[in-house]
Each structure stands twice: as C-alpha cells, then as structure tokens.
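Schema walk-through. Below, the input block comes first and the output block second. Nothing else is stored per chain. Lengths vary across the set, and this one has 230 residues.
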Amino acid sequence: MDVLVIDVGGSSVKLWHTGHQEHRKFESGKNLSPDSMVAQARETAKDWNYEALALGLPCRVSSGRPVEDPQNLGPGWMGFNFAAAFERPMRIMNDACLQALGSYDGGRMLFLSLGTAVGSAFIADRLVLSLDMGRLRLGESRVFELLGDSGYENLGPKKWQKVVLDLIPGMKHAVMADYVVLGGGNAKEIEELPDGVRRGHNRTVVEGGRRLWEELSDPAATQIQEWLIL
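--- output ---
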C-alpha cells in the first residue's frame, strides 16, 4: 500500500511517502488551520500517488480523532473531517506516537521528541500510550520549557545537552523502559548518548505510517489483532 504520511509540527509540516526516499515540507505555526494544511499538503504532494494517509498531530488523539486543538497551531482541528478533505482513507495518531511506532523494536520503549516542545510516548508489546512528560515540573520550569526550542535557545547547546542527559535516566526509570529513543530536530545536537538511549530519525514516521495501515490491516497477523492506542 502506498501511504502518504503527514507529520504536523509546530514549525513545519513534513510530508513523507512509503514509496519515496525524499520528503517535502512547508511552514507551520500558530496561524495554520486544518483547511490550510490540507490545501498545502495536497499541492505539495500532487505528483505522488497514494491510497491512504497517516496523519501525526501534536495534540491528544483518542479513537483516531483529535480531542483538542494543537497548542502551537491555529484552531479548528477538532471535528475536522480529514478523510473527506483528502478524499482518501485516513488514520490519525499523536505525532510522537506515530514516530514511536516507527522506532519500536520490542520490549518497553520510551520515545521523546525534542523539537518545538517535547513529545513523548510509551510502547510496551502492542500498547501505544501517548504521554505528556513535557508538563512535568523541574524546579520552577516545565520540562518542555527546558528541553524544547526555547530551552535550547535560552540555555545554549552545552547546558541544554547537560539538562537533557540529566533528565533522561529519571524518565526512563519512571516508566520502567528497557530503552529510550530520542527523535525530533534537536536530537542530533546531543553529542554522546548514554547506554540504553539511541537516536531516532524523522524518517521513522514513515515506518510508523506503514505499520499503522499494513500491520493493522493484515488478516494473517492473527496473533495480535491490533495496536491499542490511548
């Protein structure tokens, strides 16, 4: 199945395709509405053929629907009919969950996305759980204020990296994870990773989109009926 995977972030919207190596993108931001996102995505991917879409949104998603508007985007995302707008079947996940799904290698995995804010997700066996570890407090600050883009700019690369490496072990132990995967645009800024932590890649979202469609739809996979997404 050819799947168009759309990863909506606070600063850009990235488009990937399961049959192509390249990715394309356009700017995001607080004025981006779902109508505008759909129009720009369709134009950007107009020469790609695809049968279905996987959409990652930076907000809470329940039963395949956004249940709140993303904090760093414009309004109108709740209740929007994305499948009708794209005229294709659509499956939606929290953006961190979609990247985590593509990064998963078994066991208990904590995924942290270091970008505009801090996305987080946890997978154990076939349970995909959306987290909001960015809301945790560390002293006077929230974790997303320290580890997101604003923290990187305020602290500088060295201090920011130290805070990241100081916080990861506690997060890993809190959810009893076997390993941690760091994704997002700022993950590449970390020079040395501790044991049990590996760097992800934005392209893992493509594998997440493929798994969201093909593994859930494969009748031969009778041992596990479907991913449970909360």
